[in-house]
Specification:
The complex is a heterodimer of chains A (about 110) and B (about 110). Helices cover about 0% and strands about 50% of the residues of chain A. With about 110 residues, chain A is mainly β. In chain A, the strands form 3 sheets. In chain A, strands 2, 5, 6, 10, 11 and 12 form a 6-stranded mixed β-sheet that branches. In chain A, strand 8 and strand 9 (about 75-80) form a beta hairpin. With about 110 residues, chain B is mainly β. In chain B, the strands form 2 sheets. In chain B, strands 2, 4, 5, 6, 9, 10 and 11 form a 7-stranded mixed β-sheet that branches. A 4-stranded antiparallel β-sheet of chain B has the order 1-3-8-7, with no helix packed on it. Classes of the chains: A mainly beta (about 110), B mainly beta (about 110).
């Protein structure tokens, strides 16, 4: 079965710092990849997704992610974070459309210091 | 546009009681899912549906039932509540892949079983 690892459990950055959150998955075949964000007290929101094509995908709020197949990675990046980016970030993988099983990582809590 | 609406937002049950968590979406999404979120474990899929009349089990289906009689509604039933079912429950919906595929989540139901 596929799994997702987010090795950074809690990241603390100052405003304007650059961000990179790691996401690695274990599955040898074709995957569909997602990043979700959960602001304090709110529901999950889709930041970006990758199905195929250009491995560099851009999402909402200035986030982007790069799919590196050889490294089984889908890291999330933002060049300059803001205090409002304080949230929990979840990477997720779906192997097959139709079985609809999104496998989530355990999440990375991001705290931005003003 | 309300999106995905979950009721109730909070619920306390006694062990052995049954209840139904409601989920409704107004986006005409064919796909709907239920997840539970537990600390340190990310989100895990309970049940999902790819259309009215079609449901299937996810990763952690035991103790839960679902049905999908309409496109809009996807209720989750707890048959006999146990303390292990204390969790935050999220309903989600999506259009079929690819295109606009990507789950929209509701605001969650926080369930405590005592």
């Amino acid at each position: 079965a596929q799994s997702v690892s987010q090795h950074n459990h809690h990241v603390i950055l100052s405003e304007a710092a650059s961000l990179e959150l790691g996401c690695n998955y274990s599955y040898g075949g074709t995957v569909n990849l997602f990043w979700y964000v959960q602001y304090p007290g709110q529901h999950l929101q889709l930041l970006l997704k990758y199905f195929s094509g250009d491995p560099l995908v851009k999402g909402i709020k200035g986030f982007e992610a790069e799919f590196i197949k050889s490294k089984f990675s889908f890291n999330l990046r933002k060049p300059s974070v803001q205090w409002s980016d304080t949230a929990e970030y979840f990477c997720a993988v779906m192997v097959n459309f139709g079985n609809e099983k999104l496998t989530f990582g355990t999440g990375t809590r991001l705290t931005i210091i003003p | 546009n309300a999106g995905v609406t979950q009721t109730p937002k909070f619920q306390v049950l006694k062990t052995g009681q049954s209840m139904t968590l409601q989920c409704a979406q107004d986006m005409n999404h064919e796909y709907m899912s239920w997840y539970r979120q537990d600390p340190g474990m990310g989100l895990r899929l309970i049940h999902y549906s790819v259309g009215a009349g079609i449901t299937d089990q996810g990763e952690v289906p035991n103790g839960y039932n679902v049905s999908r009689s309409t496109t809009e509604d996807f209720p989750l039933r707890l048959l006999s509540a146990a303390p292990s079912q204390t969790s935050v429950y999220f309903c989600a919906s999506s259009s079929p892949p690819p295109g606009d595929y990507g789950y929209t989540f509701g605001s969650g139901t926080r369930l405590t079983v005592v």
